[in-house]
Amino acid sequence: MKTKIYIITFIMLILSCGQTNEKKNKILDKKQPVVKTFEQREKDRLKKRAKIEKEEKIDSIRLDKVLSDALKIASLEIKQNKFQKKYKVRPDNEYDVEVEINIGDYFIKNNPQLIIRRLEPNNVHIDIYSKDGNKFKKVLSHKQWNLTYVNDTIRDINGDNLKDFVINWYGATGCCLKGFSDVYLLRNDKKTFSKNFEFINPTFSPREKIIRGVTYGHPGHTEMYKYKWNGETVDTLEYVYYETIENEKKTGKIVISKKRAYSKDKKNIKKLNSIPAEYKKIEGFDWFTGNFLK
Length: 294
Hints:
Blueprint: H1 2-31, H2 38-75, E1 83-89, E2 97-104, E3 113-119, E4 123-132, E5 135-145, E6 149-155, E7 164-170, E8 179-186, E9 193-200, E10 202-205, E11 210-214, E12 224-230, E13 233-244, E14 250-257, E15 270-272, H3 285-289
Antiparallel strand pairs: 1-2, 2-3, 3-4, 4-5, 6-7, 7-8, 8-9, 10-11, 11-12, 12-13, 13-14, 14-15
């Protein structure tokens, strides 16, 4: 009898241990994170990307409708030498878009141009039109992230006595001085514009047809540059930087070169004891020297 009891008890213990281990394994399985395969991750990424692209397409359709409506309003005033209108719309009840319509002699006298600005939560959209008979023809379109946009100006940048279009903006990320200007040159036909030229921390000198500026880098450890307009291209004249030895220690000499400081090609360089006077009045000069830190 005792033997039977022992056998039954032993069997129950085995079954109990099995159940206990099974429960433990289930608990452990629940606690362990699910590791996705590459295929699963890629599928999720593509799904998210498709969703973003769909939303962007919908936004684009909304904004195209806003632009189309603004163009209709402007077209009714095409014979006017000057016209301004500002209003706010909410396409599909999603978000507000501020619209500015301006007709005037902004670039060429006695030849009014149309500028339409659309300001939505994420971006600033600027479209410029020239008259083409009894309608407006688009000649420039620019989109700038709202967070970086500073302003836009109309001025002669390259010294050809034609007013150009310039968008000024400031980089949203990074450690250092990062003021940018995007330049569209008005062509000799006085209607169309060149491609976009982008400059960092520039100082424009239309009289000289020169652009001087400071490149991206830490204060006291960056370069200055000098470019020159050559029609619808820009020629690099020189870079200016401090001569350094080991551990970036400055020697006191200034290097003038057609190559950047980190270039391996050290040919055709000139060394000076001081910075050329032409650079001392440009915006960001104190950043180049690092003197503002003292």
